[in-house]
Amino acid sequence: MLPLFLLLAASLSSAPIASVLAQDGGLSGPTSSGEAAGYSCDSSKCQLPDCHCASTSPPGGLSPEDTPQFIVFTADDAVQTYTIDAVNQFLKHRQNPNGCQPKMTYFTSLNYTDFGLVTDWFVAGNEIADHTMTHVGDPPAEEINGNLIALNALSGIPMSAIQGFRAPFLDFSVDTLKRLADASFVYDSSAAASVPVTEDDTDAFWPYTLDYGMANNCLSVSGLCKGEPKLPGFWEIPMYAFFDKRGVAGPHLMDPWLDAANGDSKVDDEATLEYMKSTFTDHYKNNRQPIGLYTHPIHVAPSYPGVKTPQKTIDMINAFLDWAQEQQNVWIVSNEQLLAWVRDPKPVSELDSVGALKCSTPAVDQNICNGMPEKEEGLQSKCTFDEYPFSTCYGCPDQLPTVANPNPNQTVPDGESARFRLPANCTTAFWDPIEGECICNSDTCSFQDTSKPVGPNGANLTGGGLGGSFTSSADGAASSTPFNGPGNGAQAMMPAGLLPSVLLALGAGLVGMLGVLNRL
């Protein structure tokens, strides 16, 4: 993520922020081909849920008509009030076909991150994933694992819940993938699907495991593909590009609204909306491969000081999502939810049984510092550092986390006691870090399922809660309160399919570095 002082400088200069950061995740053409991939997979041996061949066909042998159309929503870099505002303005008011508010994946790096907001975002049901500590490409293990330690220590994210990774600048290597597998990550999402689904040589594969090597980015990453690297059970979730009128010569991947369409010299929101709809339709009418909105939220932040709100672009993105949600069986999801469905694919008639798509509320009565804003008011520690301030439920460190020391000693104010970090036998919503106790156990922790039935034969298969029109100019900025949290008509929620991972285990907890060693 660009330091805040550079962002402010960009806002005061003649160069827009878009020109400063547009190269972070852009594409200029195909990154793979069938010949370069040299991919071969034995589908008789590679079987779900833990092995899946790279394929353009829906998993589980489903027909496209029986397959949900997933829109994956992700954000990269620091978590701050203005970036949460940016995500809220697209998802806060929406519902999936089962009445659940959409979840998303936040690939989090630590510089300028507010750890308390990370806690709130996670407890609200969103996925927190790894984006290195200091936003470096082809990162060493210390950058990857240090992020795990810091997010666990200062945001209370369970080690087991941080399953995914995206490389900054999408700059990864074979060694990066090996490091992730060694650290027990479930998936990477740094590779591009860079050829349209309408082309015979498309690389728009459904998520797949690396039991037989990679099938994406074969032309852009040295040593990749042709059976390498073999990492059994480790998943790649490709990032699916949009394509303008030039087809394979006109890909747009991250923040496509920053790119000029069709070879033009200026950005045109109408042209962007046109090719986003066209690409979505190609996916929807073919094999229903997912499509993604991969964002750097700063570009569309409605509340960043000194930067003009790009309202027309914001309205265009909402217009796209409005239109997409009018189609049957379209779901806005996180990578975690997508992968849960891929590992156990269900047809439209059985979507009620997919726990990861449901929503449930943890039942918490007392006021504790747990990531639920109405429960933790006044309980967070406020950490004031010259570089950037942040809040946390877990006690302020005596210095900012670094690669060399991702979990600094805690500073204890006069008259207070040290706060207790999250153990492995409790989860964030039920852990009281001030008293150092879980407020319930595996028999007494309870949740309320708030999802509505999704009927067969296409019943109740459109989403709702649409945004403003493309031509309108919305007043005011979105609130930074988590979109499915208190103050927005519902309590903080988490997908029901994640409940087993958040219920209490029987043994004693392990924290900090010991948790990372467990993963290793």
UniProtKB/TrEMBL annotation:
UniProt entry tagged with the keyword Ribosomal protein: no
Residue ranges crossing the lipid bilayer per the database entry: 498-517
Segment forming the signal sequence: 1-22
Entry keywords, A to Z: Membrane, Signal, Transmembrane, Transmembrane helix
CDD domains: CE4_CDA_like
Gene Ontology biological process terms from the UniProt entry: carbohydrate metabolic process
Domain of life: Eukaryota
Protein name listed in UniProt: NodB homology domain-containing protein
Provenance organism: Schizophyllum amplum
